[in-house]
Amino acid sequence: MESFQHEHFPVKDKLHTDILEKKYGPIHAEVLRHDNVREVKKGTERIREARLVDRKNILRTYALTFLTYDKENSEIADIDDKIRQGGLIGQTFREHGYTIKKNVIDVFIMPISAKMSDDFKVEAKEAKARLTEFYAKKAGVTPTIYGTVLEIYSPDFKDPADGINEVDINQVNPLTGALQGVGVPIDEIWERLDRATENNEWDDLKERYEQARQLSRPVVQSLHEKIAQYLGKVTAIDKD
User: Fold this and answer.
1) Which one of 60, 73, 167, 239 is separated from 159 by 20 to 30 angstroms, measured CA to CA?
2) Are 7 and 40 spatial neighbours (Cβ–Cβ below 8 Å)?
């Protein structure tokens, strides 16, 4: 267990499910909700909610995604159709020739419901969680952000008692929109996400990077509030 508890979050190439499958064997997605972006009215929240479970149907990661891609991008919308039918996000994009990267925007410890604890088959009342922007890109094409993803990890996989480590902290970046707002193009953000976790590829843009961090804080806080509200509704339904 030690090697998985302390394995760093993969921000490129390797997928979270790749690591889960090394520990637990085959992983599949049990889709609880996945809005059809083509049918949702403009301005309405578009959500995917899924349980990543092993062959014993034990929950290993709970994933809540706020879908942000442009529905006019027919290729991404077609891929999303396959994900909605039960495909794993990263694996499905990879099968269609996309390179995957993740922009980590927060890492934290959060309380979990008794129902989620039971689904994880643990007695813990907290779990480690991470918020990321999920990037997908093909050669010669501008990167697409498929969505903002919350992952809540099984305490058996990531022990919340270990807290937030230095690598977790170093991986956190401003939101893409905030970086663009201070003049960093999305293609450049994509390239800088290639950085190794021990290096900070933003040293030459310190002033703009700090400005983007300040701009990101209220947006990330709003995301936390939106997540808490959504999970609260889900817990209320479970109790009913």
Assistant:
1) 239
2) no
